[in-house]
Amino acid sequence: MPGAGGRSLLAKLGTVFLRPKPWGLTPAPWWPLSARLSSSPEDPIHSSWLVGGCPPSQPDVAYTPLEAKPLPHGVPKSREEALGLIARYARRSATPVSLRQLLEFGRRPTPKKLLLAAQLMHRELAIRLAHRVVELQALPYGLSAMRSVRRVRELYENSFADIVMYPRPEKEGEEERRFTELLRRIRDRHADVVRQIACGVLELKQSCGMGADDIHISSFLDRFYTSRIGIRVLISQQVSMSLERARQGYVGIIHIRCRPAHVAADAADAARALAYRHYGEEPPEVVILGKTDLEFPYIEGHLYHVSYLSC
To answer: Where does the Branched-chain alpha-ketoacid dehydrogenase kinase/Pyruvate dehydrogenase kinase N-terminal domain start and stop, copy by copy (predicted)?
Structure first.
């Protein structure tokens, strides 16, 4: 919490750090995700954020769902056959998708657009899940053998199998919505993954003394949590656009005029309330400095998470 004289919470908009802090672990260095800002005729500021794609030094790849052709294989007839495709999908590269692209694609949703996005998800999520399965199978120091990590790997394997065994949606309307409902179930099923991975690292530390402060484990956590954020953003955007009632001022889960100062103030209030309940004393006020009227399209939950952990 802030010191006696209060604390300045500065919104650093050049780079946004979005790695969740595993419960009970010493936090490893946060991994920066590109958050470049540029002007647009329609919005004062656009943020271009790569959702689990190439490093910030590389250019964005155009968001073109029409290129999301299925890999040349039929629908697997069994879970074993589906799991046999993991290595094949893991050799494919994930497609970088920026926040700007999600925003522009979703501004005027149509059944055709929703179908194209669902077809991209059918291929893209299988690739990203396969990457995580392969990595979870080959972690250092025996981390892959920890019970909690094995559970997470099985969870990712099951989700991969669910997607590749589900026929690629080819029709607008009900067929697309049924597939999107599957994506929602997968997202909800993975809600406890952060805690499970944290438990796995603690199990490893208890067994051999290696923990999150090790550079190899820290690098794995950075990659894993960054990928998880990207997967959840893609699924949540599709679910919001297809299955949920549109909210004014939002394109899916993206708030068109997000105000970082307001989000930071809400997070600070929540952190102060938690400190009061824990310590029984009124914590100092948190002072928000900078351009407090700044607005730009962003996912408020991510800014809230970063701001809350900064208090």
So the answer is: 96-255
